Amino acid sequence: MTGEAAFINAMRALATHPAARGLADDTAVLPFGGEVLILTHDMMVEGVHFLLQQDPADIAWKLVATNLSDLAAKGAEPVGVLLGHMLGHGDDRFAAGLKEVLERYNVPLLGGDTVSAPEPGGRSMGLTAIGRATCVPVPSRSGAKPRDDIYVTGPLGAAMMGLEALQSAASTPETESAPDDSSSGSDAYRRPQPRLAEGRALAPLVTAMMDISDGLLLDAFRMGTASNVSLHINAQQVPIAAPEDRRQDALRWGDDYELLFTLPAGSTPPVPATQIGRVTPYVQGPVWLDDRAMTQPDGLGFSHI
Amino acid sequence: MTGEAAFINAMRALATHPAARGLADDTAVLPFGGEVLILTHDMMVEGVHFLLQQDPADIAWKLVATNLSDLAAKGAEPVGVLLGHMLGHGDDRFAAGLKEVLERYNVPLLGGDTVSAPEPGGRSMGLTAIGRATCVPVPSRSGAKPRDDIYVTGPLGAAMMGLEALQSAASTPETESAPDDSSSGSDAYRRPQPRLAEGRALAPLVTAMMDISDGLLLDAFRMGTASNVSLHINAQQVPIAAPEDRRQDALRWGDDYELLFTLPAGSTPPVPATQIGRVTPYVQGPVWLDDRAMTQPDGLGFSHI
Fold it and tell me: Catalytic activity, per the record (chains A, B) (predicted)?
């Protein structure tokens, strides 16, 4: 067992409170004061989740947007965030990006911590998002049922194409194109849009829901595993925002933050969404892509917890 | 203005929601459902807040205890924590220490994130603690009134002496004493005890309260500033857990996590506590030590945010 797997197992053994959902869901779900709190915390690490040369405004945007996307998967309304910030270069740009994203989604900054960076060292940032459930029971990954239809809220691969546009721009002379030029098509990668409104509309109807942060196939693998079913995905039905010859990549690439959800057979989703397959009882693996069962998460997407 | 001060000013400009308390208090205070949420997030950075050679179990304890201490200052009952963990050496010890501290204070782990460390780099950890107010209005730093009495819940300097014991043990040959030997008197530094029960008992009675994380004088400076009063502290009345010739150091050293609070004149605190002075209208500075007004926080304690 790797050190990471061992550590996560140790955390699962500690997280016995029902609100923790066994650390197998996007968020914690905690009844409080007659309502239900939705709580999530994500970290971003320089060299792992972002690069030194990225515009810190984009890093701030993504840090907030990825946490809000977890709230979206629960149909939750954001009520605020706490920021753990490590000081460093470009803090003014970070603050500017934070302001933009918080204003865009009308989320207040409630508090947090500001610390010095270690010497030498990559920086890290953490964000805690706090939400209010708008629908109880709160959707989980574990409710998909045989015969349900499987949907996604939008095309996949946009972030992949955006990152490649950024990398291509960065490798051309600066006089031609700035790496952070928003006209480069990189917005989907730099400034993901959490599907908050879609999540709220879907929450009362779905049998299972999660956001696609690590790639459709890997996240579907998690949903199938949590629900103890097989998700049969038809590759050609999946909407992609990439050239056709990149379809297989688009199914595996992360950072798109669309919602993956299941509905009872024949239901009509209340928001734009595309049916990509159907649920069956568990057979061989939690995900089938066309006629092939996938039995291992390795290689399905970007695997981190 | 330093980069840090500029960044914190930018955050204050963003944190206009009343729950943020202007980022000038220990925690956020957010009405939710029919109750009040108390929210706090602290980070610890290798080389800044802990050292590579420390037992990771102690780092986990301290990370949780310092956040619970912020809840204690609000008279809050902890309802759970979210952990942002960067993988590294000694993760098994970290998990063991986390289990110990969560069981000791009966606090559930609700969720969080596990990430890889940057290469090369110091590690960082973040913790968000969520609490339930047991007393509304929730105590703040800003309510101290002229003629109030000033108290602390216990002696100061214990963490200072504990750190020195650790450092002394580390410099002796390993065969004589292990650096993490708990008999070395270092417990106060390694395993601080948040004053949760005391905070809850005090919350309905205090005019102002905060935990002493950065040294009595610096934290009193913050309370006096927030309350727009002068806190007159009698150095000889302050209980210390250090030799008498270290009294001035003990007033400035952090990491003790006792509670500093003010009560209307003549009240009797419901928990063991020592009166150390009295509040007056603001004159010259927010803190007077004996007959000297302190007008600048520099040098009063360990100044970080």
Answer: thiamine phosphate + ATP = thiamine diphosphate + ADP
Looking at domain B149-294, its CATH superfamily turns out to be PurM-like C-terminal domain (3.90.650.10)
pLDDT at A108 over 90: yes
CB contact A27 to B (< 8 Å): yes
Give the right CATH number for A3-133 from 3.30.1330.10, 1.10.510.10, 3.10.129.10, 3.90.25.10. 3.30.1330.10
**pLDDT, tens digit, 9 for 90 and up, residues A15-65:** 999 999 988 888 999 999 999 999 999 999 988 888 778 899 999 999 999
Peptide bond into A120 cis (omega under 30): yes
Count of Cβ atoms closer than 10 Å to residue A235 Cβ: 17
Residue whose C-alpha is closest to residue A223's, from A272, A269, A259: A259
Q: Which residues 35-74 in chain B show a CB within 8 A of chain A? A: 35-37, 39-49
Compare CB distances from A7 to B15, B43, B114 and report the shortest one's residue. B114
Please count the residue pairs, one from chain A and one from chain B, whose beta carbons lie less than 8 angstroms apart. 257
- In chain A, where are the structural domains located? 3-133, 149-294
Rounding to the nearest 10 degrees, give the CA dihedral for residues B58, B210, B224, B28.
Answer: 100
Interface test with A, best of B1, B11, B25 (most A CBs within 10 A): B11
Asked if B90 has any chain A CB less than 8 Å from its own CB, the reply is no
Q: How far apart are CA A191 and CA A98, in angstroms?
A: 12
Res. A174: pLDDT tops 60: no
Q: How many CB atoms lie within 10 A of CB B268?
A: 8
Q: Identify residue B35 by its one-letter amino acid code.
A: E
What's the ipTM? Answer: 0.92
Q: Distance between CA B36 and CA A119 in Å, rounded?
A: 39
Q: What is the CATH number of domain B16-133?
A: 3.30.1330.10
- The residue ranges of chain B whose pLDDT is under 70 are 1, 120-121, 172-184, 302-305
Question: How far separated are the first and last CA of chain A, in Å rounded?
Answer: 15
| Nearest-neighbour CA in chain A from B266: distance (Å) | 35
**How many CB atoms are located within 10 Å of the residue B291 CB?**
6
